[in-house]
Design brief:
With 267 residues, the protein is α/β, with parallel strands linked by helices. The chain has a single domain, classed as TIM Barrel, CATH 3.20.20. The protein has an eight-stranded parallel β-sheet. Helix 3 runs parallel beside helix 4. It starts with a strand and ends in a 5-residue tail after the last helix.
Length: 267
């Protein structure tokens, strides 16, 4: 059975058919899903979804939402984690981190919220789920200053050296739809060369659609929909299985075990 280590099941894109999305995922063999929060406003919704479907969740403030967050949101995060301390479905702090890809974001503010959330995770003795876009070196620097209990670097697209540094700090690296594009040479090289126990699978649904769901900007403007969902995970995994010379059942067992190692609450 498969584990989707990163899926925003609470996203508005799923409002019309969320139950059917979950049913398709289970029919495809995706029995475990981790739902990360992105801001204080959706803490309750990810908790409810996890409880409704028996999935796992994480609480955190995403770097793209830091601009509208404040110190009270950080206090609320700490309180929410304390309140859910005995909830077996709470497995991490996330999705947190730094985004140096989107123009116009306040990097100093991002750094402050990232460091604060690492400290909160350390205090709660929880792993973290990290968002990294063109920010790997900054993330690593903070992780060395504020060590945490490992976790997952979601949608990893850095260098082999950066990958090695994250793995040395106890992190697994997430691979998803981007892996299915033939031109994604760096991602494919990493997925093939990393230690077997360093890799987890994810969809990031409804985002990062695989190659067969991708739509160009012109197609989207014309009304074409490009929504990823957790049922796509086994087909995404086929690319990884071919790169590593593994059967799908062996890869499902391996990557699910890796998610449990990264997020011990899942076990």
């Amino acid at each position: 059975m498969w584990t989707d280590s990163h899926c925003h099941l609470d996203a508005a894109e799923f409002d019309a058919d969320r139950g059917a999305v979950v049913a398709r995922a289970r029919a495809a063999g995706v029995t475990r899903i981790v739902i990360p929060a992105v801001e204080r406003a959706n803490f309750d919704s990810v908790r409810r979804l996890a409880a409704t479907h028996g999935f796992a969740y994480a609480l955190g403030i995403h770097p793209l939402f830091v601009a509208r967050a404040d110190d009270d949101d950080l206090r609320h995060l700490g309180d929410a984690l304390a309140e859910s301390r005995d909830d077996p479905l709470l497995v991490a702090v996330g999705e947190i981190d730094l985004d140096h890809f989107v123009p116009g974001l306040d990097r100093v503010r991002q750094e402050r919220f990232y460091a604060a959330q690492l400290a909160i995770a350390r205090g709660a003795r929880l792993p973290v789920i990290l968002h990294v876009r063109r920010s790997a070196d900054s993330l690593l620097r903070q992780l060395r200053l504020i060590p945490v209990r490992g976790g997952i670097v979601h949608a990893f697209n850095g260098s082999a050296q950066q990958a090695k540094a994250f793995v040395a700090l106890g992190f697994k690296l997430g691979f998803g739809g981007a892996l299915t594009f033939a031109r994604a040479l760096q991602i494919r090289r990493l997925a093939q060369a990393l230690p077997a126990d360093a890799i987890v699978l994810e969809t990031d649904a409804p985002d990062i659609p695989p190659q067969w769901l991708y739509r160009t900007a012109a197609e989207r403007a014309a009304g074409a929909v490009s929504r990823n969902e957790p049922a796509e995970l086994p087909r995404i995994a086929q690319t990884l299985a071919e790169l590593r010379g593994l059967s799908l059942p062996a890869l499902a067992e391996l990557t699910s075990a890796n998610v449990r190692a990264a997020l011990p609450g899942l076990a």
